Q: What sequence folds into this?
């Protein structure tokens, strides 16, 4: 088994360095590379790699635009590379995402590889998706989250007020959006649907559940550091340790 | 995609600021450039006519009152007469003061030779007195006639001599005031201009620092070296030496406004070499300097923001060609920076482009003798031209 890698980097020497380091690994192979935002989206969409090394600064554009472009197309594991971006570094640290600060040495690269291997071995990477969602939501200059979401059912389309949404859950290829007393099915992945929601209002508490903060009634301690959430409608959801780490600090430190 | 050329030459400075300057405080750099001297006289009284007239009338009334009180022990006299005498005198002096301003400009008190200045002002004082006395007497005769009276000047020579000795004092007083005011203004303007130049230079130096020691530039350069050293040790060595040159130029702290062209081109070569390494195979840079120009003086760090712009915005994807040429055209040094990149932006150039800094510094250094043009290049890209007087 070897993992495929796409390198998104606009400076040839930086790309050459990554290629050289990756060539030394037995379980990684470089499947392709791109040096612009548009080429990266196309390449990643086409190759569907396991890992993407993504430069945060691509000329005057941003590597985050690549991630926006990938929404609904591919969900590779992303390792950010950056020469200097105070904002990005801070954001990565807050979201505990891996990044390589240029110039980096082999040792630092291998550290990151070890983390990538661990993450790739994990069947459920939904918490990584959640970290990326929050990272993207925090990027300055992004439009504010939508107040209404267009929902298409068989024969009609209507607007759903985000303020009415209580929770969203994954159901196969669909998401089930729960509004007071009823629910709507939308054909989209939970990760993609969640990008429309404000991370400070809606928490991902499980790989299959996103909940409005105000809709949580109770947090119950279970065994092994796991928790159970009780919602205002009586619904109970398990909160695993990994997702507990993603709770807002104000809630987490009281647990 | 052809766009019109935006001429930023000095014959249309207003449109220049409107387009590219975006100065934070709104101050216009040419506001404080000394005006041609001919304008000074009219400006001296120009907009302040009402103030000077009021002051003159107050002075006239004051002297008139004094005069009247001084005469109280003598034979009785109509009270309005002393006021007419003094007002007529003061108003004529006021009307003549622009003449003194002009004479002072022509024969400045601090000019050489002294003898010439003394003679000129002596003659001017006599002329001033003659005109003052004559006009004053005519005015008095008119007012007296209107009042049904008649004004007698008495013995012409005695009267004129009496007025002359007073007028010489008046002339000297006005002369000194004019000199002092002009001196003060020029000094203030000069200081302001010097301060502005210093501020612009330090702004340029800051930009320079943030361009070469911009963390993004620096760390990417280090990363490129860290890759290059595994491919070609000598090439990596050269990169380190270029980076050293750039850092040295950035840390230079001398305050010179103008530096020899060859030292200005040093950082340019280093910067271009680093960029060419970072975007190897994608970027070409060509520098063409006519021979014999090395010692000519150029504004420090003037080309840096323009070249940086061309790299950053013109060649946004890191691909393309950049040409810099420095030539002598007549009495001017002309630099052009052209790229085959994305061309002129549709929106007015932003504050961050550094172009406003360049235009302000040119305006301050060569107030009416420079050119800065920004034009579309055929078939694509941008050409920036800067020209200013060539001097050693």
A:
């Amino acid at each position: 088994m070897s993992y495929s890698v796409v390198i998104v980097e606009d400076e040839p020497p930086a790309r050459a360095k990554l290629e050289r380091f990756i060539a030394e690994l037995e379980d990684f192979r470089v499947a392709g590379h791109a040096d612009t935002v548009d080429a990266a989206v196309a390449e990643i969409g086409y190759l569907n790699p396991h890992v993407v090394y993504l430069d945060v600064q691509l000329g005057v554009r941003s590597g985050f635009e690549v991630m926006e472009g990938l929404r609904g197309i591919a969900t590779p594991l992303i390792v950010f590379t950056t020469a200097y971006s105070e904002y990005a570094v801070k954001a990565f640290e807050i979201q505990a995402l891996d990044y390589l600060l240029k110039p980096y040495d082999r040792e630092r690269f291998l550290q990151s590889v070890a983390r990538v291997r661990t993450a790739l071995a994990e069947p459920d990477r939904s918490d990584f998706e959640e970290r990326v969602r929050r990272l993207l939501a925090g990027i300055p200059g992004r439009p504010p989250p939508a107040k209404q979401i267009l929902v298409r059912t068989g024969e009609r389309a209507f607007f759903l007020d985000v303020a009415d949404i209580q929770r969203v859950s994954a159901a196969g290829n669909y998401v089930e959006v729960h509004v007071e007393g009823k629910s709507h099915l939308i054909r989209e992945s939970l990760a993609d649907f969640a990008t429309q929601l404000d991370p400070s209002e809606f928490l991902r508490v499980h790989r299959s559940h996103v909940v409005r903060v105000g809709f949580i009634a109770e947090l119950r301690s279970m065994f092994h550091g796991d928790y159970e959430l009780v919602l205002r409608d009586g619904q109970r959801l398990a909160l695993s340790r990994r997702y507990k780490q993603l709770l807002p600090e104000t809630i987490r430190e009281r647990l | 995609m052809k766009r019109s050329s935006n001429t930023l030459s000095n014959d249309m400075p207003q449109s220049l600021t409107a387009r590219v300057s975006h100065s934070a405080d709104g101050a216009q750099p040419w506001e404080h450039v000394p005006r041609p001297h001919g304008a000074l006289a009219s400006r001296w009284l120009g907009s302040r006519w009402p103030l000077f007239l009021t002051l003159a009338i107050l002075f006239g009334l004051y002297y008139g009152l004094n005069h009247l009180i001084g005469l109280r022990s003598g034979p009785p006299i109509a009270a309005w007469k002393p006021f007419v005498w003094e007002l007529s005198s003061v108003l004529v002096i006021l009307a003549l003061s622009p003449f003194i301003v002009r004479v002072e400009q022509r024969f400045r008190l601090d000019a050489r030779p002294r003898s010439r200045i003394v003679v000129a002002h002596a003659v001017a004082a006599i002329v001033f007195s003659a005109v003052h006395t004559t006009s004053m007497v005519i005015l008095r005769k008119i007012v007296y006639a209107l009042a049904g009276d008649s004004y007698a000047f008495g013995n012409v020579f005695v009267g004129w001599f009496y007025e002359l000795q007073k007028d010489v004092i008046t002339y000297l007083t006005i002369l000194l005031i004019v000199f002092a005011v002009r001196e003060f203004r020029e000094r203030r303007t000069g200081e302001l201009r010097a301060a502005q130049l210093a501020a612009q230079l330090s702004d340029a130096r800051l930009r320079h620092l943030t361009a070469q020691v911009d963390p993004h530039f620096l760390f990417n350069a280090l990363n490129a070296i860290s890759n290059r050293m595994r491919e070609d040790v000598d090439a990596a060595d050269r990169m380190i030496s270029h980076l050293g040159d750039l850092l040295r130029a950035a840390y230079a702290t001398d305050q010179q406004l103008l530096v020899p062209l060859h030292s200005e081109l040093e950082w340019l070569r280093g910067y271009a070499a680093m960029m060419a390494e970072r975007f190897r195979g994608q970027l070409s840079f060509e520098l063409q300097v006519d021979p014999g120009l090395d010692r000519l003086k150029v504004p420090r760090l003037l080309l840096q923001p323009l070249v940086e712009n061309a790299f950053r915005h013109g060649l946004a994807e890191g691909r393309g060609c950049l040409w810099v040429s420095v030539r002598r055209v007549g009495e001017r040094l002309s630099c052009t920076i052209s790229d085959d990149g994305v061309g002129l932006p549709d929106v007015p150039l932003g504050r961050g482009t550094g172009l406003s800094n360049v235009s302000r510094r040119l305006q301050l250094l060569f107030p009416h003798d420079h050119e800065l043009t920004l034009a579309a290049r055929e078939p694509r890209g941008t050409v920036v031209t800067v020209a200013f007087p060539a001097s050693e």
